[in-house]
User: What shape does this take?
Amino acid sequence: MSSTTLARTFTAIDGSAADRRSSTVSMYDLDGQLAVSVADLYAAFGIERKPEGLCIGDVCYPVRTTIDGAVGDTPIVSLDGVAATIGRPLVIDSDAAVACMGAGASERSQSLKSGYAPDFTLPDLDGNLHSLSDFRGRKVVLYAYASW
Amino acid sequence: MWQALNLELAPLGLTVITVALDKTLDDARPWIEAAHPTHPSLVDVNYTMADVYNMVNVPTVLWIDEDGRIMRPNDVHYVDETFSGIHGYHAEAPIAALRAWVHGESSGYDGDAVADQPVATVEHQMARAHFATAWWLANHDRGAEAEPHFVMADELAPQDFTIRRGSMLMRGKDPAGMDFFQMVGDWVGAGNSYYVPQADLAPGTSTDRFGKFLNQVNGGAAPKVALRASQDPSSSD
Assistant: This one.
């Protein structure tokens, strides 16, 4: 695998996070695929490159294809490879210099098919945060609407 | 009405949580303040609830028990009659069912809640990633760069109106005017459902009546205010 420095910064959006947090990452070229450092992968998307695979929290996914490279002493990973390994959707817009990785269909499905309501934390108008889990022990009607 | 139901049923162990999918707190503010809620009234500026619960439209309601289990999967409930003539939904059945559930007289759902909870496809999650990309770009005053991602999201998940209708304001379209009527008219006209209710409380409602209404307004003046208000959690409280 050959790696070169693109010397470009991208905005990375964690589309799986409720706050859609964004961060700036350096984007490299890894045999024609866009790649980020292992450190940026974790900082931007919360995904860890470990010997056993790619890990999100306690859940690890074995890596079945080559996704790794290096630029100098910096280990890098292909974003396409990461997305394919963990089953997350990846949007890369090179013109806009934006990369977004969302939540995968299987992650979301497993969560809902567990039968338990996924927890969430959202603000009220005063900025106070409320979580669904705050109301454990009570019945809850969850009602989503919009002003539009 | 949610406020009234919350007051009535809170002593029996129910909490109503409303979540506004709106692009800013201030978009949701007048609706929430008008309702004077004493229950949690939250705002979701990234529409993450739609992603996490695989919601494809508003309103969407779920009932969750004391242990956090989903007892009633994604459903379409209106709890007042203000605009039932428009959308074809009536409040009586869902309110009666809610009372029965809270009073412990029913399990809350006439079916298998786990099996009937809709889950997302790979394409839909890719649509949501494009939507998140577009949302971020639009929120950073990069609307021209956002637009192709909105288009991709629409194409990948044409059934998701939290995306298609919920992005209209960002894209300079009218989510309660002719842009909306045109979109839903085309969708319903092609034989699809605009709302996807569970069958036990809303047999035979939904698409037919709403489609009839749309045919009427597409040929005449659109009741813009009425459609906006139809999304209000507290209307005629």
Remarks:
- Residues 122-139 of chain B form the longest helix (18 residues).
- Chain B is about 45% helix and 10% strand.
